[in-house]
Specification:
This protein has helices at about 10-15, 20-30, 30-40, 55-65, 80-95, 160-180, 200-210, 245-255, 260-265, 275-280, 310-330; strands at about 100, 105-110, 115-125, 135-140, 145-150, 155, 185-190, 215-220, 235, 260, 285-290. With about 350 residues, it is α/β, with parallel strands linked by helices. The chain has one domain (about 10-330): Aminopeptidase (3-Layer(aba) Sandwich), CATH 3.40.630.10. Strands 1, 2, 3, 4, 7, 8, 9, 10 and 11 form a 9-stranded mixed β-sheet that branches. Strands 5-6 form a two-stranded antiparallel ribbon. The chain starts with 7 loop residues before the first helix and ends in an 11-residue tail after the last helix.
């Protein structure tokens, strides 16, 4: 996720050595602004009546372990490893009766003399009118491949970045495919070449725009393998102030799911992940959720980003917790999520 966290390496040493006191002092520089924005996180709760979904934690673990296994060699776009990942995703979509959006699941594009493949599954809406409006639930499934070795290990497995997000989209596809009673249509999208400059999402966003897709919301998922530290929400939303997505999503969920992270705004993470490609093309709410909060994980783009570093119970709970918000977005009579 090179573009999503391009500045992380610049502050890596700072994060590892700074004291808690310095971090508090740093945050205090914009205390008034941050306090105001933090207060906007929690809307008045509205009871939705949803029964919490039951996601299979063992399936989450198995899918995560496969996508971040050494056999996939870090899932670099154009490699044999990411081809194995693509086939794996396709097989699970097919097994769960998720239709391909195009003739096949693959949306191919050229990259650095090779080819990348976005994988796209469709769950068609049931309403004769609203089924022509789409949600895109997405995550990038590529990573950076092989890097300088540490203790004879050169495989950047990318468990948190972004096998974790890919597993979330896969489990959501399985859930909504089985339910298959939502009024709007949903595309479940696994994007490639994010690490090479958002190339997969740029290609797909332009293609869908040219095909006149009526996109309502893009809900992108990045690095959700470990919980945040001392936060009153489960994940943060990039571009928090760009739309009312967080407020409405929390209202729909009857739970404080999405919040604001000052660091996300400071480093302009809104423009550094695949959501931004869809925002640029469609000018609709297109934002990313993440739980990497710059204090809770030390292995970004390192060989230690392995499956056994991930918190499977947390991941499972988060996936279950975002279902009511997505389900409500897929069924409201009008488009309630809007840009500010």
């Amino acid at each position: 996720m090179r573009d999503f966290f391009i500045f992380i390496t610049m502050i890596k040493n700072f994060i590892r050595t700074a004291s808690l006191g310095l971090l508090v002092l740093f945050s205090a520089c914009n205390l008034t602004q941050n306090s105001t924005e933090e207060k906007q996180i929690i809307p008045p709760p509205v009871k939705t009546g949803f029964t919490k979904a039951n996601i299979n934690a063992m399936a989450v673990k198995e899918e995560l372990e496969f996508l971040s296994s050494n056999d996939l060699m870090g899932r670099n776009t154009g490699s044999k490893g990411i081809e194995k990942a693509a086939v794996y995703l396709e097989e699970i979509l097919k097994k769960n009766d998720i239709k391909p959006y195009y003739t096949t699941y693959r949306d191919s594009f050229e990259v650095e003399g090779s080819f990348g493949y976005n994988i796209i599954g469709l769950v068609e809406g049931t309403d004769p009118v609203l089924k022509n409006e789409f949600l895109i639930i997405s995550a990038h499934y590529d990573h950076i491949g092989l890097i300088s070795p540490i203790a004879n290990d050169s495989i950047a497995n990318g468990a948190n970045d972004n096998a974790a997000g890919s597993v979330a989209v896969l489990e959501l596809a399985k859930y909504f495919g089985a339910a298959s009673n939502n009024k709007r249509s949903i595309l479940f999208v696994f994007l490639s070449a994010e690490e090479k400059g958002l190339l997969g999402s740029k290609h797909l966003a332009k293609r869908l725009k040219n095909e006149k897709l009526d996109l309502y919301v893009n809900f992108n998922i990045e690095m959700i393998g470990v919980p945040m530290v001392n936060k009153d929400h489960m994940a943060y939303l990039t571009g928090f102030e760009e739309s009312n997505l967080a407020d409405k999503f929390n209202e729909y969920s009857d739970e404080n799911i999405l919040g604001f992270l000052p660091k996300a705004k400071e480093f302009d993470l809104f423009r550094r992940s695949d959501n931004y490609s869809f925002y640029k093309e469609f000018k609709v709410p297109a934002q990313t959720i993440s739980t990497f909060d710059f204090t809770n994980y030390n292995y970004y783009h390192q060989v230690q980003d392995e499956a056994d570093e991930m918190n499977i119970p947390f991941m499972t709970n988060l996936i279950e917790s975002i279902i009511p918000g997505i389900q409500t977005m897929a069924n409201t009579p009008t488009k309630e999520i809007k840009l500010n």
